[in-house]
């Protein structure tokens, strides 16, 4: 069976052959293996483009391993942290940055579609020369609701990282607009983020980091520390 047929069966979604697509498609989103990776496409980008988990370093990031722990994310996560659970993995851009900084990472994602895209990205990561040369293993991916999964972790991580979807007040920057807008279209806001915060606070060993838009109220009341970026903020809650 083709990889795409297997994927359709796994996700229990229709398998469509691109050569014989009807003019009017009932589906808004599609998954497709293209250019060596799994891509998410909408109706407009069906014939081109598409979005995949980008495993390359972010613009401006050093290509060394471990990458220096100097940006706001690293400061929020803390220098003494070794193990992190990213409970809201999404496009895995924060996860991958943390992986490149050398943290030991576990990822959680509840959307089965996003989980397939992440898994494909992590498989590609495992093939990279720098990963093979250093005998690194891509982060472990757990698929399901973190509110439930966090309670079943064998060991409490030093840090739990949350970046849930908040209601939008303004347009996102050009760099993040497309992938995050598509995510928002498929999944909507994460309305249960207060429950996620409570579960993460109960589970974490030392600290909880929440990334939020700068207009949002801190999720858990006054944080122990806050790191302010241009349009976002990392609130840190220390136990
Ligand atoms: C804003 S995105 C995260 C973006 C990510 N930080 C990145 O760098 O690409 C939020 C993601 O968290 C996931 N999510 C939200 N609440 C969750 C929960 N309770 N359990 C598991 N995944 C969750 C959503 O499905 C979505 O994919």
What are its keywords?
2 domains, seven-stranded mixed beta sheet, 8 helices, binds S-adenosylmethionine, Rossmann fold
Quick take:
This protein is an alpha/beta fold and 239 residues long. It has 8 helices and 9 strands. The chain folds into 2 domains: 3-42, no CATH class; 72-238, Vaccinia Virus protein VP39 (Rossmann fold), CATH 3.40.50.150.
Topology, element by element:
Blueprint: H1 3-11, E1 29-34, E2 37-42, H2 72-77, E3 83-86, H3 93-100, E4 104-109, H4 112-126, H5 129-133, E5 140-143, H6 146-149, E6 159-162, H7 174-187, H8 193-203, E7 207-213, E8 225-228, E9 232-238
Parallel strand pairs: 3-4, 3-6, 4-5, 6-7
Antiparallel strand pairs: 1-2, 7-9, 8-9
Bound molecules: S-adenosylmethionine.
């Amino acid at each position: 069976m083709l990889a795409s047929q297997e994927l359709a069966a796994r996700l229990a979604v229709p398998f469509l052959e691109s050569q014989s697509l009807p003019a009017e498609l009932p589906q808004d989103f599609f998954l497709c293996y293209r250019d060596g990776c799994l891509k998410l496409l909408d109706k407009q980008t069906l014939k081109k483009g598409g979005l995949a988990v980008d495993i390359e370093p972010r613009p401006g990031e050093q290509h060394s391993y471990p990458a220096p722990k100097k940006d706001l994310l690293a400061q929020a996560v803390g220098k003494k942290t070794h193990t992190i659970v990213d409970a809201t993995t999404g496009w895995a851009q924060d996860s991958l940055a943390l992986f490149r900084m050398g943290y030991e990472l576990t990822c959680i994602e509840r959307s089965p579609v996003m989980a397939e895209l992440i898994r494909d990205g992590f498989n590609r990561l495992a093939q990279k020369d720098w990963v093979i040369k250093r005998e690194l293993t891509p982060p472990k991916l757990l698929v399901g609701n973190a509110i439930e999964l966090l309670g079943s972790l064998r060991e409490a991580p030093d840090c739990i990282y949350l970046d849930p979807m908040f209601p939008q007040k303004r347009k996102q920057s050009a760099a993040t607009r497309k992938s995050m807008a598509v995510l928002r279209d498929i999944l909507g806001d994460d309305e249960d983020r207060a429950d996620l915060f409570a579960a993460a606070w109960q589970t974490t060993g030392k600290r909880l980091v929440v990334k939020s838009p700068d207009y949002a109220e801190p999720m858990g009341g006054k944080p122990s520390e806050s790191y302010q970026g241009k349009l976002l903020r990392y609130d840190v809650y220390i136990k």
